[in-house]
Amino acid sequence: MANYLVTGGAGFIGSHLCHRLLDEGHAVRVLDDLSSGKRENLPAGVDFIEGDLRDVDALRRAVDDVEFVLHKAAIASVQVSVEQPLLEQDVNLVGMLRLLEAARAAKVRRLVFAASAAAYGMDPEVPKREDMRPTPASPYGLSKVAGEYYCRIYAEVFGLETVCLRYFNIFGPRQDPKSPYSGVISIFLDKMLAGEAPTIFGDGGQSRDFTYVANVVEANMLACRAQRAGGEIYNIGCAREITVNDLVRHLNEALGTKLEPQYAEERAGDVRVSVADIARAREGLGYEPLVEFEEGLRRTVSWISE
Prior knowledge:
The protein is of the alpha/beta class.
């Protein structure tokens, strides 16, 4: 068994990681400022530190005697990064650097970083491969790409093992539809459960690689155990395109509704097609999606309905 730190552990993905780690018998510490996460998301048995990535003293306490760091804490909203770029960069990028330095000083064994498909920006080439040139289109995407570079440098220069996981569109239980960080599935579900038609920006033909949260949790566990993964970057998705129109159809089937979406003007900068090539994650991590889209949607609907 090992000692883990989960930054952002009270949030959507982080809390699922905490549950998995405790179920496996590991010791789990969480650093979270509760700006978007919730205390009730945390399972019993977690050592909780309230603080953020700008608090150097909290970081030092958080990494003390820790073997693995699963770094999920971030301002995860593209819109917030556009409206407040200095704040976003201070938390996401400078905060990342502070965490890496604290982890190095504490002799942490490996750090797994929640990178993002935002690294690919508006590049129309699909599927997205890790060897494509990063073209971030927002301060948020830029901070994630820069975080990847910092991870590589800390691996090569300082010997801190790092693994970067580029998440595609993650969904599942505990994703708050009212949060500015929320994904389209939770937003649509919230509206459709209230009997309201979802709003699609554009013609609905745009597609995403919707990935159930259990797949991301599994990828993090594999990233901690994998040999020769230090300094590497991996796409984490399902390698499957689902259009937004198809998403509404699937949600209607799951909910037993017949709500027709409303269409609005396409948003500037909206990527048309996004799907992951996961060949590198399969080879380097042994990653394989455990929960397909339809099953993940059923689980999410069941959780929200309850």
